[in-house]
Amino acid sequence: MQDALEDADVYRTLLESTRAIPWKIDWATMRFAYIGPQIEALLGWPQGSWTTVEDWATRMHPEDRARVVDFCVAQSQAGVDHEADYRAMTRDGHYVWIRDVVHVVRNAEGEVQSLVGFMFDISERKKAEEELLRLHRELEQLSMTDGLTGIANRRMFDTRLGTEWKEARRSGQPLSLVILDIDCFKQYNDAHGHVAGDECLKRIAGMLGALARRPRDVVARFGGEEFILLLPDTDENAVRGIAQACVDGVAQLRIPHGDSEVHDVVTASLGVGTARPDGDTTAREFLAGVDRLLYAAKSGGRNRIETGNWHRPSAAR
Questions:
Q1: Could you tell me the maximum CA-CA distance found in the chain, to the nearest angstrom?
Q2: Distances in whole angstroms, Cα of residue 186 to Cα of each of 147, 192, 248, 269, 294
Q3: Is the Cβ–Cβ distance between 280 and 256 less than 8 Å?
Q4: Domain 2-127 CATH superfamily
Q5: CA-based angle 297:276:226, to the nearest 5?
Q6: 6 classed as catalytic
Q7: Would you say the CATH fold of 144-310 matches that of 2-127?
């Protein structure tokens, strides 16, 4: 008997000397049979204040409570060992990330008798995970952004074109594209230098971004001196107005061009198209068609807009 008591004291000492917090709940009464004194150092709540599972549940972040409680109860009823991560409230109103590792103890008849487990402070791990997630999102955003102008890049445009094409096919709403190419940009760089050329691109990108403000609109640098606007739920009349605003916006910037074949300030040529995806029409065919319109505008004298509509692959006009 003495040996058993000594062994129990040794086990308790070992449990209470770890950073993990041991606990036990009687299943029939839903009351704590034991919780380690380390709980007070971690959360501030006295060891004796942990009486029932209600104390555990109410000291949990409201956003986590229903999810965690429902999960733990269901797993315990099924006799399945489990783990749960949640934010536990400290006595002074702050929160600590906890991982509860739960073992279900059954009696000889296979009925749930008690729950025993450990609480672990995983706050530092969560901070590290959140920082990694933030960095991942930041890198993902950078991978979708043009480094010079700060607007979307070709990769972002390609991704969104596929998404919006599918949505337009589903909804039956029109989808429009505007491809804008700065006229005689090589000559501009030759006459004014590449630093001035970069500034020209940034100013035009800023102007275009101000024209397409709806959440689903995309303004991207398409490559070199080309920009593209992806405009969901935009019909032929609306996109013509936006295209004209692009031409006017470039003109209003009044960027001097010392070697243009068109004007003494920077101008742009535009290909503009509207599609209502139908049948075998593909987004790539639509994009290629609008790109051909751009080159028609350039070969037709530059500083102009060329438009077309697509209802089926063979219906460009």
A1: 105
A2: 20, 10, 22, 15, 17
A3: no
A4: PAS domain (3.30.450.20)
A5: 35
A6: no
A7: no
What's the whole-model pTM score? 0.61
Beta bridge partners of 99: 85, 120
Q: Dihedral angle at the C-alpha atoms of 74, 78, 80, 86, nearest 10 degrees?
A: 10
pLDDT in tens, 66-118: 999 999 999 999 999 999 999 999 999 999 999 999 999 999 888 999 999 99
Q: Catalytic: which of 83, 124, 225, 226?
A: 225
Q: What is the domain partition of the chain in residue ranges?
A: 2-127, 144-310
In DSSP terms, 271 is beta-bridged to: 179, 306
Q: What single-letter amino acid sits at 103?
A: H
CATH code assigned to 144-310: 3.30.70.270
57: its two tokens: 């549940």
CA distance 128 to 98: 15
Where are the strands (E) in the chain, listed by range? 21-26, 31-35, 82-89, 95-106, 112-121, 175-182, 218-223, 226-232, 268-275, 305-310
